[in-house]
Write a structure and sequence with these properties.
Structural class: alpha+beta
Number of domains: 1
Shape: globular
CATH superfamily: Catalase core domain
Number of helices: 8
CATH topology: Catalase HpII,  Chain A, domain 1
Helix content: 25-40%
Amino acid sequence: MSEEDNLTRQPPLSPSGVAGRLAAIGGVVLASVLVFAYVGGWLGPDRLTPTRMVAALSDRGGNPLGHRRNHSKGMCFTGVFKANGAASQYSVAPMLAAGTYPVVGRFAIAVGNPDASDIMGRVKSMALRIVAPNGQEWRSGMNNSPVFVVSNPRDFYELTLAQDIDPAFGKPDPGAMKRFAATHPDSAPFIEWAKTAPWTTSWADEAYNSLNAFRFIDAGGASHLVRWSMEPTVSPTPVPHAALALMGTDFLEHDLVSRLSDGPLTWHLVVTLAEPGDPSNDATKAWPSDRKRVDVGTLIVQKAEAEADGPCRDFNYDPTILPTGIAVSDDPLLPARSAAYAKSFDLRTAEAADYPYSPRPTGGRP
């Protein structure tokens, strides 16, 4: 399904009208989440539940107890987001108005083993929690791939099962991944990226992409379909994959600490606006490169800390925790991500008493 009308113009509304419009949009979004969760198999008769999804993620090897079940190995960071105000014509989100807002974030690699070597980190990630003065939050989880590997929860579950460790060999069955690729042609763009994109030894020189589509809601109540990216100011330094094996297991952490000792690291937050026909519900498909792109501010990473006692440890980077002015799209991965993140958070919190590195329970929404 494609988006037929990505920008709906309405006459200017009064403040009370804007509030009513946003409330109505919120109701529609909630209904869409439920519908697309069902379509994606999350709530359907096959019962692809968050428990089953997280259990599959937990079975990929290593010891994830007390840790996130995906993107298990990571590092916390703190800093600020300096919005330049350029996004205000598209969204009333308070942290997109010109100003400076605190950030607690996390860099990670997409593995299920918190003790994995960084050479396993084909997919690197950046997660953010940006807080406005009124307490509203924008949480986002982004990957360095240009597209996602699948478009729906059921396919992601099948992909996760294909990554299970074969007890006979102590590693995943390569045949299982080949069979998955052969039966899921929509994964081809991601697989091609994974095969051909350069490797680097840093989190600092990567661009991180939302992959899922979201909606910016402006002061007039109009909806703008968007994706966003954090684009680095550090030029990438490609290295042969084989060379990474000589750099130790934690070279990403060492590189980050070393770079920050010389000063902050920065990324530009660039928002891409869709045009009619661009898919809103398929993260395997990139939008055309000629779409309008707007630089809306700068992320400044000032300090990094180990996750064991770091400020990001107790946060769930659920991408559906959004401020007024940003809403989910009809992408079925979004409600599935939210549900799985919550289940993973509950598990690692419950394991806190038995494992030295696990999150402390926090009040309010995780």
